């Protein structure tokens, strides 16, 4: 797994590979009438002609399939002429069967090619939605891994993004309700709101309040889930962290998301927030403001952020993946090795495979903050929540 893990590498069968296959298929087909010269009259190998046609249809597109099919049909005719049995009933049946199968395989090849173009377009759009994280932002080194539940697509319902503001690095990790292709629209709403706001020099609680307002309106947009959709069924758990450049701590606002893990002096700690907020999109259900919990984050410390696709992966006995327990032995790993270790260990644990979206982000502070600034011991004051989005007419109870 890597920054865009979960997607299959695209294979474009052109160039020397394609030319080599076409030559090999043509030679194979030519051997059929040649072999017929030496085989007894009771032995027929015409059925083998369908093999190169079928393989070409699956891997090399309709144009090459039509070419190989034409050569195969011609070879069958030549073999029949050699035996002087072109008008016999058995040869006519073989010729008709090969022609029909070639037409069907050509249609299959057309469908596969169209599906390939659709997936390529979807992959292009998805990669524009979930951009790769940079390896560094300010004094913070970053590594990440991503896997979508739909293995043919690079993006699902998990998300992450990073932004620089004056004197700080901000990172968002989140999990849209649902998974796979059906959640990409909501993923785009959250990422768009974060990218439009996170670079502004506002306090972190105000940033999250702004995100809640934008996400709430985005999820309530007409046509999102059809008439009568319940907005409470659409939400995003998220953790937003801010790492000041010159201060030895990290601020965390949790909106119903899993707590980050901090690696410090070989020990691993779960950074649980005392009063997590509701998930984005459900802020209207709670009163009060957003509070940023503050934790020490010294040079060399690392953070591991993740989604429930990690912690809810099961082994063959149905046991959830024990991330905190496993992480206790990874205290000295840098961001890239930490991400690789998590994903490799997760694959070994989930022997039946991963069936949910999964995102992992590792951070490390590399530069020393100002030593004159002590690490604070309390959360920043809460920011007021935005006013609830007005319900659409078809969403009123």
UniProtKB/TrEMBL annotation:
The chain crosses the membrane at residues 21-39, 68-86, 92-112. Residues 140-365 form the PPM-type phosphatase domain. Residues 364-397 are annotated as: Disordered. It comes from the Bacteria. The keyword Membrane applies. Keywords: Hydrolase, Membrane, Transmembrane, Transmembrane helix. InterPro entries: Bact_Sigma-Reg, PPM-type-like_dom_sf, PPM-type_phosphatase-like_dom. It holds the Pfam family SpoIIE. Residues 371-387 have a biased composition (Pro residues). This is Serine/threonine-protein phosphatase.
